[in-house]
Amino acid sequence: MSEPSGPVALATRPSAPRGRLRWPRPLAAVAAVALAGALAACGGSSGTSPTSSGPLVFADVAPFSGPDAALGPTYLVSCEGTANAINQAGGILGHKVVCKTADTRGEPADAVPAVGNLFATTKNLELIIGCTSDEAASVVPVINQHKTVMFCMTGQSEFDHVKYPYFYRLVPPDLAESYAMTVIAKQLGYKRIALAFGNDIGSQTFVQPAIQAIAKAGMKLVANVTLDLNATTYRTEAATIVAAHPDAIMTEALGNADPTLFAEIKQLNGGKMIPIIGTSAAISPAFFSASAKAVGAKVFAANFHADNLVTATSGPAYDAFTKALLAVKGKVSGAQTGDFTTYFTATGAVHLYDGMNLAALAMVAAHSTDVAKWRPWIVTIGDGVPGAVVVHSFAQGVAALKAGKKIRYIGPGGPTVFDAYHDSPGIFQIDTYSPAGQVIVSGNISAAQLRSVEP
């Protein structure tokens, strides 16, 4: 079979990180309370059973408000584009696909009732996407109890070794991204590193692995600040960073936090920007637009790098994906009006598109929308079996299945290799921006490089 061209062909899949994090007691407690509360709200744990008629619902469970509000619309663009492509190809066993949203606000306390309401009010709820690190520890047990398949964007490492049968993930744990950011700093020759991460759950999971990786790489941690995502100024934190004279800042603080910090650092640093190394969450139209406005597009582009998961940049999988997203350009509520092509490399857009296609093809292969029958096909179609033909889109997969062929789906996110916990971590590339906001792939990160900074 042919591998996707471009960066995918240049990198190798990293080995699973050896370091594992225990489930923090607060998260475990939140999950237990969430499970009890949501089940009470929903009236049981049997989930929804699709009827013989009506559309199938793919639900985007993610922040649409709050500091991480850019995540939900990114996933929704992917959902609407994928649903449209599936429907254009005839739908799933006679069913059309529609997308629905549940705003978690990025907070466990808001996520639990949002998911409870979703189950209570939604007929034919077939698949859930999203569930970010902000709320995953709370909602994954609930969704799993309802026997509903989910493709989540959480990077929390507890999902490496706590098995939920209905949980699937096509992205690596956050600690792997911390290692990738450290590799970028090492490649660029930086010696003195500052950390600036948001006070939300999803951002804080990067901090301790980053500290350990920086030490392993022989670099010096000179500042470590936490940004309150509800604040309107970070002048104190900016002053701390500037006074420490770092060569670079490793960061994830979504919403207006990072752009505000960048502007204040520039002001306090004699008009000069300190180089930034971000996570894959920084690859979005919203993040570029806000950062460019804060410090100037040329200045930001010249001083920014981020780790990102390798995605195809050409070939049949990329063509099908971009066509699907472009078909809904301007039609998705809350989507950014900046450079729409940024969605083509946004981790959430790419890997949730692949997850939705895997689920849809699994239903077709199983000749059923009964989750008990189609769920086992996800790994079969993703990882492939002997004699399987490679397909790169839902339409191509359906045609092959109707012809009596076995299939392996390889989308723009590359091939899957699911482990016992339904994790299939991707491989990393290094992204930058042009002054116009276009994403530029500037390099790759090998498995050996990740291992070199892994504690």
Structure description:
It is a single chain. The protein has 455 residues and is α/β, with parallel strands linked by helices. The chain has 2 domains: 6-171 and 315-409, Response regulator (Rossmann fold); 174-309 and 427-453, Rossmann fold (3-Layer(aba) Sandwich), CATH 3.40.50. Helix content is 41%, strand content 16%. It has a 7-stranded mixed beta sheet, sandwiched between helices.
Largest sheet composition? 7 strands, mixed
CATH classification, class level of the largest domain: Alpha Beta
CATH topology of the largest domain: Rossmann fold
Mean pLDDT metric? 88
Spatial order of strands in the largest sheet: 7-6-8-9-10-13-14
Shape: globular
Radius of gyration: 21 Å
Specify the helix fraction band: 40-55%
CATH 2nd-level architecture of the largest domain? 3-Layer(aba) Sandwich
> Mind telling me the CATH superfamily name of the largest domain?
Response regulator
What distance separates the N and C termini?
A: 36 Å
Strand content: 15-25%
